[in-house]
Each structure stands twice: as C-alpha cells, then as structure tokens.
Structures
1.
Amino acid sequence: MGHDRVYNFSAGPAMIPEKVLERAASELLNYGGSGCSVMEMSHRSKEYDAIIVSVEEKLRRIMDIPDSYSVLFLQGGATMQFSMAALNLMGNTGCADYAITGQFSKKASEEAAKFGKVNIAASSKDKNFSYIPRQSELKLDPNASYFHFCMNNTIYGSKWDYIPETEAPLVCDMSSCILSEPVDVTKFGIIYAGAQKNMGPAGLTVVIVRNDLPFCPTDNTPILLSYPEMIKTRSMHNTPPTYGIYLLGLVLDWVEELGGLAEMEKLNRAKAEILYNRLDASKLFKTGIEKPYRSVMNVTFTTGDEALDKQFIDGAKKEGLITLGGHRAVGGMRASIYNAMPIEGVKKLAAYMEKFEAERQ
Ligand SMILES: *Cc1c(COP(=O)(O)O)cnc(C)c1O
C-alpha cells in the first residue's frame, strides 16, 4: 500500500480500496470536465442522473438483480431499515418472525416490536451467539408478514451457512457481507446494507426490494420511510446521498475489474482461511465461533486474558495493523477483513499473531 496507509481492521466505517480513493481524489475538483465536484452537483442535473443510473446498472449486473426488484439509495443506515421494513410490512398481519443471532438482529427486533408483534423464531443467545440455528429449529409464525435475519453477525463473527426457507418473504440485513460473495437475490423480499462495510462511505444505505411485496405504509408513515414513495421517486423524494452513491460506483468498477462476486468470494475465503488456520493452530488465541458458522468478514478471537489482549492490540498498532479491538459489548479482538482489505494485510496480521505467541512460550 502507498500513501503511508495502514491496514485498518475496523468493522465499519472500514477500508475503501486504495485505487478507488485515488480515482475519487483525481476527480474530486472537476468531475468528467463538468467543472465541479460530484458533491457540488444538483441531484436533478443531467450529469448526476447519468451517475446514479450507471451505479444502479452496475449493481444490478454484479449482483444479478432482476427487474422485478427496485434498488434504493437511502440514508439513515442499516438501523433505519430496522424501522422502515417493519413500518412497511408488519401491518399486513400485525406480526413478523425474527431470528436473533447477534446484536444487530436483536436491535432490529426491538425496533419492530414498536409496530407489531415480534415472534422470536430462533435465537442463539443460549450459547453466546456462537452458532446459527438450523432450519428445523425455526419456530415460524404462520401469520408472519415476513422473516427477518442478519446474514453476517458483525460483532460476534458468525454467518448464516444457509438461506432459511419460509412462506413469509425474507428480509435480510446484509450490511457486513453484501458484495463479498454471490447471492441469489430472488430468494429475498428485501436486502439492505449500510455502505460503510463493503460498499463505500457511511451515509449511504442500499436497499434491494421486490416490487410486489404488500407494502402497507399508513397516512401516518413518514414519507421518507415509505418504500412505495422511494420506489416511485427512484430514491429522489429528497436529496439522496449523492457522493456516497458516486463512490459506490467506483467500488463497483473495482469489484468488476477483479472479476465480480465469484472472484471476490474466492479472495475473501483465502483471506479468512489464513486467520482461521492460525487460530486453529494456536495455543494462545481462540475463536468462540463454531466451525460451520465462522464469518468470512469478521474474525473474532481472544487470549481469554484482558491484559494480554490489550498488549496484542497495542503491539499490532505499532506494526501498522490498526483497530483490532473487539466490539465493546464482547471485548477481545476482531479482525474485519472486508473486500477492501488486501491479502497482504491479513498475512501480516497472521505473522504478527505467530510472533506474539512465540514470544510468550
Ligand atoms: C454496521 C451494522 C449495522 C448498523 O449499521 P448503521 O448503518 O450504523 O445503522 C447493522 N447491521 C449490521 C449487520 C451491521 O454490520
């Protein structure tokens, strides 16, 4: 890496590919001969329309999104989708199914409970969120308007190893795994993701929504929280996060140049394997996540000794490996190795882990 940059293992906002940042910098003051920055353009201008249309086209191509789905570029983060999904769908039957496999899915269920009855269809809390419940264990409510789950649990470092099969449409938080591997969009009613993990800067939230879902916003639903309104106006009821959308376009160009999502998945698996192999070989570090459910994006581990964990994190920083502290709710370490983390950064971290352990034997 150039520019004296460090390997940043932050869970989000996370690294953005260096090539993307360089291109953004080169276009920052004068975009495509327009004489102004993308940041300074009217979202209703011809120039900006070309940008947002092309970003949507690229995302549809890369993720293979059918025409029966809309792509929305919203604000408010993944957290706003916790409310928006419930506000637009819960009213159909007054209830929805939620699988609780970590903090964010729990937060989503708490938000939904403001708008109707939440049925906890499954939870892995009994074993500290170290596993993913099996399909046969899901206690589905036959009346549910939808089934909500979080594909990759950013904080605990676990991931669903299958897509649940339910009568009700699937609503899925993919904030920390979107674009990391191919996914069959047709299996989902709604996919949403905050951009700051795998897609670009914070402030942009991508929502992929099947047009024929029975949306039921009421007269009291805030206009910006209505999917039908946002679909109708192509995310332009008000000013969309224009610069974040542009940057997403640059990230998508980078993904395509690398070979698309199948190639991305290979790269990501190779990176994760380096760290999990190191953990499995280690006597000092361990991960609490059971093997089939280990996240490819967020690798959590600990020595089991808080003071030693701190030594590890502080020492890593001196090596240019930053933000390795675990989420404040769980402690320990977390290496977030999203698309933009180069494999060299992961190798450097694995080597540092080995050295740290050898010095303490
Ligand atoms: C980061 C994250 C969130 C929260 O995202 P915001 O954009 O800050 O609201 C929600 N869900 C998952 C899975 C995340 O990784």
2.
Amino acid sequence: MHTAISLLALAGLGYASILSALDGTSAKLFTGCVTKGDAALTFDDGPYLWNKNVSDICAANGAKVTFFLNAYNWDCMYQSWYNVNYTDSLLYALSKEHQLASHTYSHKDMTTLNQTTLDREIDWNNLAIKRMTGCMPAFLRPPYGSYNDTVLMEIGKRNMTACLWDFDSQDSWTGANATNSKKAYDQGVSSAQGSMLALNHETYSNSSPDFTVFDVLPYAIDLIQSYGFNLVTVAECLGQKPYLSTGPPSKRDWTWYCQES
Ligand SMILES: *[C@@H]1O[C@H](CO)[C@@H](O)[C@H](O)[C@H]1NC(C)=O
Ligand SMILES: *[C@@H]1O[C@H](CO)[C@@H](O)[C@H](O)[C@H]1NC(C)=O
Ligand SMILES: *[C@@H]1O[C@H](CO)[C@@H](O)[C@H](O)[C@H]1NC(C)=O
Ligand SMILES: *[C@@H]1O[C@H](CO)[C@@H](O)[C@H](O)[C@H]1NC(C)=O
Ligand SMILES: *[C@@H]1O[C@H](CO)[C@@H](O)[C@H](O)[C@H]1NC(C)=O
Ligand SMILES: *[C@@H]1O[C@H](CO)[C@@H](O)[C@H](O)[C@H]1NC(C)=O
Ligand SMILES: [Zn+2]
C-alpha cells in the first residue's frame, strides 16, 4: 500500500526528483538555536581581511563563533582561499575553537542553479575547507538564505545540515552603520526567546577598520553576556557535531587552484 502510494506520487515528478527522492532525505534546516541560554554569533562571506581579528576578539572574551565561508570570494586572486593568507586565517580560527562551516563556493543563489553548478557550489567549497583544514564541514548556510526543496535534498544527500538565523545585525544592509547595528542588537537581545542565532558579515564596511568587527562585535559580546547567554558555536547550540570528519590538512600542490564554478 505504502509503496503503491509512493510510486504514484513519484510518477508526477521529473527524473532528477525521483533520483534524489530515492537516494536521500532532505537536510534538516535550523533557523535558531535549540539550547536555551545559548547565543551563536555567525560571520558570513569570509574569510576576509579581519578574520583573525574576529577570532581574537571573541577568544579574548570567552566567545566561540561560527564562520560561514566562501572559498571563492569576489575573485580568484586576492580574495580566494587559494591565497595562502586565508588558509592561515582558517587554521587560526580552528586553533581558537571557532567553527568553520560552508556558505557555498561562490555565493550564488542556490535556487537559480542547474544540477552541475549546484553540485560544484557545495562540493568545491567542502573540498577547499577539507584541504586547508582537514575538516569536512557539517553545516551549510545557503547564500541570501535562499533555498528550496531541491537545495535541501542536495545538502541532505551530503549529510550536511542547513542553518539560517533568527537575528540580523543588519551589517549587510545598504547604508547601515555601526549605530544601526548596535541598536539592532539592543532590540534583538532584549526580545530573544531564550536563545539567539545572529547573522553578521566579516566583509561589509565602507571603511577600514571594519565596523562589524572592531566596533559592533565587542559591543555585542558584552551585551549578550550581560543578559547571561553563553556565546557558543552553531554546532554547540544545536547539539550536533561541527564536522562530518576531521583529519590533518592536506599539502598544498598544483591541484589547489581557484576557478569559477
Ligand atoms: C587585526 O589582527 C592583526 C593580526 O592578525 C593585527 O596585526 C592587527 O593589529 C589587528 N587589527 C586591529 C585593528 O586590531
Ligand atoms: C598576504 O599578506 C601579506 C601581509 O599582509 C601581504 O604582503 C601579501 O601580499 C599577501 N599575499 C597575497 C597573495 O595576497
Ligand atoms: C529549486 O530551484 C531550482 C533552480 O531554479 C529548480 O530547478 C528546482 O526545480 C527547484 N525545486 C523545487 C522543489 O522547487
Ligand atoms: C549549467 O549552468 C552553467 C552556468 O550557467 C552553464 O554554463 C552550464 O552550461 C549549465 N549546464 C547544463 C548542463 O545546463
Ligand atoms: C551519510 O551518513 C550515512 C550514515 O552514517 C553514511 O552511510 C553515508 O556514507 C554518509 N554519506 C556521506 C556523503 O557522507
Ligand atoms: C547611522 O545611520 C543613521 C541612519 O540610519 C543616521 O541617522 C546616523 O547619523 C548614522 N550614524 C553615524 C554615526 O554615522
Ligand atoms: Zn552571504
């Protein structure tokens, strides 16, 4: 009976959908922490110039954070991980017990991609993280928070978990400044329902030093801790493992090169 219904249901789907329906389950999608009393600060779109500063500022204040990373950042030269400086930043973040997670390879809207590009966006980023750190990330945040069932199925196929947020520091909003972002934190923390999963970016700044990192972050840490929250990684606040596997980093060789997906 069950089988007959399933086959009938599948008959209405395309070939690709049948394949993914048969060979995996949809990824779990979290929009907030599950452990009450936890707050997870997340930083998207890096690693960028101030990545080590985020690691340092948080570590100095007993905070663990999570980086949702793109291996191909803006271009293949300076902002790609295949630039040795960023490999270094990632290992540094790990040494401070922060979590590394995927934000896909080049930050495309996953719901606009064909199968080939969708696979590359997920797998090339995982490969880059794995090569540089030895860790295979268990978490993925779809760029722009944009996903559909196909996307979740692809993430699930790889045993990864999808993660959004329930608070936006607004630092990627056009024209937002540190004052706007701090106000957002004031409101967000005081109205938090027992936990908080906060979206920030390493990269958005009209000027150096970056306001998210050097102005808002210390303020947010102080504020959140004054409300009694523990600042932990996404994996911790969801009670899950941060990585599908861990091991030593690989040795850089000629196969480590950047290309568009
Ligand atoms: C950011 O970190 C670097 C070391 O990675 C340090 O040299 C620099 O002074 C820091 N910037 C600020 C503004 O603290
Ligand atoms: C790496 O960082 C150093 C020091 O900031 C800089 O001089 C160098 O140009 C960077 N390397 C690349 C490939 O961007
Ligand atoms: C998700 O988006 C992709 C790309 O536009 C599309 O091919 C796919 O059919 C969509 N899946 C669902 C379940 O809507
Ligand atoms: C998938 O999309 C990419 C990028 O738009 C394109 O270059 C490629 O030809 C497409 N592949 C297929 C099989 O349609
Ligand atoms: C996903 O997890 C299952 C069960 O642990 C395992 O059999 C499978 O190989 C994993 N797949 C991937 C792509 O890691
Ligand atoms: C920040 O932006 C707001 C507008 O949203 C503006 O009123 C305020 O003056 C700005 N603050 C600073 C310090 O630039
Ligand atoms: Zn992003």
3.
Amino acid sequence: MSIELNLKSVKEQIYQAEEVAGRPKGEVKLLAVSKKQSVRAIQAAIAAGQHDFGENYVQEGVEKINAIADNSVTWHFIGPIQSNKTKAIARHFAWVHSVSRLKIATYLNEQRPETMPPLNVCLQVNISGESTKSGVTPDALFTLAEQISQLPRLRLRGLMAIPQKTGDAVEQLATYQRVQRLFEQLQQEGVELDTLSMGMSGDFVAAIAAGATWVRIGCAIFGARE
Ligand SMILES: *Cc1c(COP(=O)(O)O)cnc(C)c1O
C-alpha cells in the first residue's frame, strides 16, 4: 500500500471528474482525511506533496499537529464540535468545516487568537434529514449564515455536507445538487461564499459534478482505518 501512489491515483480521478463536469482543471482541492492514521502516514503524504489534512477528533488532531509541526501544512477540523473543545480548535486549525450552531461559532470567534488570521468556516448542512447526523437544517441555514458572517474572527467560506451513504450514483448526485442550490441561493442573497466541502472516497465524483471545491478523502489515500 503506497500512500504516494494512492494520492496520485486519487488526483487523477479528480482531474477526470473535473473534465467530465466541464470544470477547470485544478478547481477541486484535495483534503486528505487523516483521522486514526499515524503521524508516519501523514508524513509520507506530506513527502508526496499533500499539504491539507483533515482531522475529526480534537485531542488526536492537536497531538498530530504538534508532533508534525510543519508550517507548510494546513489543518482542517471536520468532526463534531463540543463546546468545551472550541478553544483548542480555534488555536490549532486554519479551517473548520463542521460548524452548525451559533453558540459554537461565537466561542470560536472569541477564542481565535488575534495573532492568527481569521478562522475559515464552513456550515455543515444536514442534507439527508437524518436525526443522528449533525448539521443545520436547510430551513435554518440562511439565518445562521447571516449571523456567522458578522463574526469578525471567522471567515465564512461555504457549506459542507455528509449525505447518507448510498450506492446509487443518481441519488448521490441529486443530494449534492441540493447542497449546490443552497450555496447558490446564499450567494444570491449576498453572502460571499467560495467553498463547497463535499465528497468522500465513495462518492467524490458525484460531488465534483455538483460543484465541490474541497473533496475530503480518507481511505482511498491511507487505506482502511482501524
Ligand atoms: C472520515 C471522513 C471523511 C473521509 O471518509 P473516507 O470514506 O475515508 O474517504 C470525510 N469527511 C468526514 C467528515 C469524515 O468524518
């Protein structure tokens, strides 16, 4: 299992999906999801030219960030956020893809150090309507986006979604297109957004067809997690 070869293959598949979708080459960025992967595996990916990594668990992520201590790496937090963990997130990450509550956004805004640039934020949308998944409902999204765009230490960049797993490519595309429509509606209302974080190892081609700008890929790069 070579991380370098896997990265190369995933990038080629991303380019192909961009081409099929009629999108400019290089518009879709690759976020390597390194949760439950070792520091050594991350270092192998860095050596192969990968510089954006996503972590789901605060303590695990901060430990790896400190162990790797590489300024060329941009760290993204993509997991559920508890209010007692916002301080560590605000201090160690450049992006948070999984904001879905105003209270959490307010804490992140207050706790983002003045010495760091504003924290890039995506709002996680509960697009499949699953009660178990976190995320703001489409109905509540517009008010939340309006409120969060006022917070000076955050920079609202766009939307993130984790649809219910399905093997059906048509269904995957339709779901991602619903996120794309919400994104476009927000833009039409004057909210400045440039980021759609959607697509994982099993469905990133559909996400790219629906306008994804970050795809979050774990096992296709690093292999199965424990
Ligand atoms: C684990 C995870 C991913 C990556 O999933 P893979 O199927 O390993 O590609 C992407 N996004 C989030 C939010 C995750 O938790």
